[in-house]
Structures are given as C-alpha cells and as structure tokens.
Amino acid sequence: MDNHLYLIYILSFVIGSILGLLLSYKKYSEPFIINKIDVLALIMAIIGWVLALNAQLIPAIPEFITVTVGVFLFAMVFGMRPGYGRYETVIGFAVAGIIWILRTVLL
Amino acid sequence: MNLMAEILLNVLIAFFIGSLLFGLQRKVMARIQMRPGPPIIQHLLHTLKFFIKETVFPKTAAMPFYVVITLILMAIWVAAVIIGPVTHGPLLLLFAIFAIHKIVEHNAGSSSGSPYGKLSCVRAVFSAAAELPLFAVLIIIYLKTGTMDLAGIIAYQDAHGALLLSIPLTALMFIVLIISKSYYFSPFNITLAKDIISGFETEHFGTLRGFIMMSESITWYMLVWIFLTVFIGGLSPIGYLIGMVIVTAVIGLINAITPILNPNHSVMAEVTLAFIGIVGSIAMIYI
C-alpha cells in the first residue's frame, strides 16, 4: 500500500470520527444508554465495514475510493459519543468479517 | 515520490496514528476501570485544540529558550521519522535521538521557571539512569545480528526469523522503555507524573503546547514502530497498524493496573529489569 493512500484512509477515519462525534451529541442528549441499537448507525456500520474490508466486490469503482468511503462510514459510527455505537460497530465488523471469510477462504 | 514528499507523508502519518494510539490507550484504560472512556480521537482533538488557543508566556520564562525547546523537540522526532520509516537508517542515530529527548525534557522543564517544570527537569536527569535498557538493547541487537542498520536488521530477520523469539528478554527491556515513555499514567514516566501536574509541559501554553503534544504523538508512533521493526521485522502498513494497536492496548492494560511509582522505585525497577534482560539475553546468545 502506498503511503499516500494510507494517509487518505487515516484522514477519512479522523474526519468521519469527528463528524460522528458531533452528530451523535446532537442526536443523543443522555450521556449513556445500554442495549438499544440505532438502526441508522447499524446500517452505516455494516455498509462501512463491508466496503472497507471487501472493496474487491465492486470492481467498477477503484479500490481506494471504496475503502475511503467505507472507512468514513464506519468511523462515523465508531466515533460516536462515549457509550454509543459499540454494538453497531461490532455487528458491522462481524458481518464484514463473515463476508471476507466467505470470499477469500471458503469460495 | 521525491524525498520531501515522502518525509511529509510519513510525519503526518506518524502524528495521526500516534494521536489515535494515545486515544486508544485511554479507551483501554477506561474500559478496564469500568468507564465508557473518551472517544479514540480525543487526544488528537486535544492536540489540535491547543493550536487555536492563546499562547501566553510566563514572566519567569527563559526566552528565547522557552520557545525554541519546543521546536527542538519537534525537530528531533521529525528527524527520527526520516531515519526510521523513510530511509531505514542506522539504529544508533535513533537511540541518539532518545538521548537528546531526555535533554529536551530537562531543558523544557527548567526554561519555564515553574516549580513543577523544575521538578520534572530534575527527574529527567535522575531518570537518565533508567535509559540503561536502551543502550543494552542496542548492544545485544548488535551482538545478535552483527549490524546496527535497520535495513540490515530487517534482512537478518527475513533470513533467521523474528528477534522477538530469539532474544525475548531484550524485547522485554524495550517494552519497559516504551512503558516509561507512555503518556497516560505510566508507572515509570516520572517526568510527566500527575504529582507534578504535567511536568515539563505544565507552563507551556497554546501553540507551544500543541507542538509538544504533536511531538509526543510522533514519539509514541516511532517507539512502537522501532519495536515492531527491530523485533518482528519489516511489515506491511496494515501489519504495522495491527502491531501498533496490539502493543498500545497491552501498554494501556499495564498502565491501568499498575501504581504510579515514585522516582526512586521507578528507576530501580527499570534498572533491575534491565539487569535481568542484559544477563538473560547474553546467556541466551552465548550458552
């Protein structure tokens, strides 16, 4: 991986995290909740992780663009205010991981 | 890509990754203490915040040294990035930078005129004794590989396997060194211990503090980068990232469950661990 791509992914992660943090503070006024899953965040986490780990599934788009968008989306959920976005991140990563295993190991 | 662009890219990567790793360290520590903890990007935001704050200068500051010392700190760690990830140069120079870092800590503490800074300054001199593991690591690696060149050490590991497996006690000594440089509640980091507020950083404000924090992020990245390169070998960027996350999480765990030692105990603990590491490693090489 070229260093400039690596930097783009890091910047995508940082900007996504900052945006996620700001938006989640607007969305949630309580400091911390347990056992409630935000459907929108879950969809973003799943799409983000799947795109970041399985960019080869969309050959029409250059890989670095898919990964950058994926990293941005999952960082928005990962970077939500403390306590929020944890379950969504884990579910998103698990789904993307299963797809990655199916794609690279089993098929 | 030309050399200047390569240097700039690597410095930016070191800054961002180092900051995020510090954030991860705080998160790990918080989770162990049953707190949700701050977001991973908190340390990065904290650093950037200082660049938009007012920079004030204490009346007691020794000008212009008070200002220049922050730039020297930044410069030595940019130099470390050039020697390390950019050129894979000599390990000896990287360790020289660690020695300069100790002098910079000392001078940053004394230049502000703050009593906390002065205590940190004295502790920087005192803790120089704890740099023993650093030089021991250097010598043992040379005895094992016959080179001090990073490229040569990587080539040696490609041929003979990771040094982590053949000289694990040396790796342990280096881990002790990494712990001593970790920013948040390290048992060994006596120059930044909370009993002296923020040590040598206490009286540096605004942009100057921003530069110090930026340098510390690069320091952390470089320490973990050197550990992974010297003891595991040349990795891909993703390999480095995974390795850095693991090392930082382990250090976070250690910092969360260990007390902050006083200066005497800290130095003696480090020297004792160094002694065990040196004797053990030499025995493992020659017996």
Label this structure with key terms.
heterodimer, A: 107 residues, mainly alpha, 0% strand, flat, B: 287 residues, 12 helices, 73% helix, globular
Please explain how this structure is put together.
The complex is a heterodimer of chains A (107) and B (287). By secondary structure, chain A is mainly alpha-helical. Chain A has one domain. Helices cover 72% and strands 0% of the residues of chain A. In chain A, helix 2 runs parallel beside helix 4. The longest helix of chain A is centred in the first third of the chain and has 25 residues. Chain A starts with a helix and ends with a helix. Chain B has 287 residues and is mainly alpha-helical. Chain B is globular, with a radius of gyration of 18 Å. Chain B starts with a helix and ends with a helix. The model of chain B has no long low-confidence stretch (mean pLDDT 89). The chains are: A mainly alpha (107), B mainly alpha (287). At the A-B interface, helix 1 of A face helix 1 of B.
In short:
The complex is a heterodimer of chains A (107) and B (287). Chain A has helices spanning 3-27, 39-53, 63-78, 86-106.
* Mean pLDDT reading of chain B: 89
What is the strand tally of chain B? 0
Q: What's the main sheet of chain B like?
A: none
How many structural domains of chain A? 1
Oligomer: heterodimer
Strand content of chain B: under 5%
Mean pLDDT of chain A: 89
Number of helices of chain B: 12
Radius of gyration of chain B: 18 Å
Largest sheet of chain A: none
What's the order of the H and E elements of chain A?
HHHH
Helix percent of chain A reads over 70%
- In whole angstroms, the N-to-C terminal distance of chain B is 47 Å
| Low-confidence sequence ranges of chain B | none
Which structural class fits the helix and strand makeup of chain A?
mainly alpha
Estimate the helix proportion of chain B, in percent.
over 70%
Low-confidence stretches of chain A: none
